[in-house]
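Case study 2.
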Amino acid sequence: MESQLELQDEIMRCRDKFQEEMPDVLAAHVTFRDEVYKDGALSHKVKRLIALGIALRCG
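Prediction:
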């Protein structure tokens, strides 16, 4: 199994390639992500904790 550091390195390599190939799509994704995690009815922290719980449950 990969270590978390190896996995993070792979994610960053893929992100860099994605940035080169489709910068507009990546920019839209980043904007969307920022809007999703913005404080509102739920705080940023609570939203991140919910996302963590879902990720852990899904494996």
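The mean pLDDT is 92.
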